[in-house]
Structure formats: C-alpha cells, structure tokens
Specification:
Distance between the termini: 66 Å
Helix content: over 70%
Low-confidence stretches: 7-15, 111-118
Structural class: mainly alpha
Number of strands: 0
Radius of gyration: 19 Å
Strand content: under 5%
Order of helices and strands: HHHHHHHHH
Shape: globular
Mean pLDDT: 79
Length: about 200
C-alpha cells in the first residue's frame, strides 16, 4: 500500500479524524508511510505527555521513540470503536513512561547519588507520593488530572482528545482532585500551607 498521507490544517478540522482513521487502518496493514504520518501528527503530544511523567527531557525523548517503535506492533490491538486514537496512543505513552520510571527506580539511588541533602530526600518523597496517588486514581480521572495540570490542556481540549463532553471532563477532574488529595493525605505527602 502506498497511500500518501498529509497533516491536516485548521481549515480541514472536520476531516482530521477521517485522515487519522485512514492512517491507522493503513498502519495496521503494515504501511510505513501511515506510521510516519501518525508519528508526525502525534510526536509532540506524546513527548509533552511523557515529559510530564518522567520530568527529564532526554528521558522523555527516549520514551517518545519507544512509544512509536512499540506502535508498529501494538497498533494491531487498537480498535476504533472503543476509544479515540489520540486517547489510545496517550495510554500507550503513559504505560511506556511508567515502565521507564519503574526501571529507573530499580537502582537504589543512594548507590548512584551518594549522600543527598535533606531537600533532595523530601522532594523525592513528594514525587514518589504523587506517583503512588496518581496510580490510585481510576484511569479516566488520572488522565484528566495529568492532561490538565501537567500537560496544561484546557477542559475543552481534554474533552476533544478523550472523546467526552466538557461537562464530563469537569466532573472527572473534580472527583480526581478530591481522590488525589485524600491519597496524598494518607501518604503524608499532602501539600501544606506555609505560615505568612
């Protein structure tokens, strides 16, 4: 198959989903041009999302490459009826980033870093607490919280990406924040207000 794919423009907004659907179907049939199209279309989104999780540019670049390498074989599992492709590829990206964090955590940091300052220990504990608390959220709430607070998307942009209504995104965001606050409190990692 040798179909030419091109990125959509703002004027072609209504056709963008159809172009993505065609590219996904072609990629599932083994068309590398379609994979390249999907890479060009989603690489910045995936990179920004992964960076919000791993918090280091070079690691985020590595993870982004892993996502698209994984896409070549994993795209066979994608079913358009179940979830929009954007949400699906961000889920793949999230899994790659979380796996990366788990692998990185396997090396005792004391061996690598030597003695650390108290502030380093405190920030490491806070980061660990946030990761654990995010893992405790239901997937849709976690995605909304991450896209809103770490990626910086508006509720309308999140609704578009997840194929939901904006009001449902507000509800997921509200419930996600409440659950996150409870989880952080249970882990003794909740933020505290400083006295003036």
């Amino acid at each position: 198959m040798n179909t030419t794919f091109r990125a959509s423009t703002a004027l072609e907004h209504n056709n963008r989903d159809e172009a993505i659907d065609r590219a996904v179907m072609a990629a599932q049939a083994g068309d590398m041009d379609a994979i390249r199209f999907l890479y060009m279309r989603y690489k910045d989104n995936v990179y920004g999302y992964v960076l919000s999780i791993v918090r280091e540019q070079h690691e985020a670049e590595d993870c982004t490459q892993q996502v698209f390498m994984k896409l070549i074989s994993a795209i066979q599992k994608y079913e358009p009826r179940t979830v929009p492709f954007t949400a699906w590829i961000l889920r793949v990206a999230r899994n790659v980033a979380i796996d990366h964090l788990r692998q990185r955590r396997a090396i005792p940091q004391e061996e690598v870093l030597g003695s650390t300052r108290q502030t380093d220990e405190s920030s490491r504990e806070c980061r660990w607490g946030l990761e654990v608390a995010l893992e405790a959220l239901p997937e849709e709430q976690r995605n909304v919280v991450v896209l809103r607070h770490l990626v910086g998307l508006s509720p309308g942009e999140i609704a578009t990406r997840m194929g939901r209504t904006e009001s449902s995104i507000h509800g997921l965001h509200h419930r996600g924040r409440l659950t996150l606050r409870r989880e952080l409190a249970d882990l003794d990692c909740a933020p505290v207000a400083r006295a003036a």
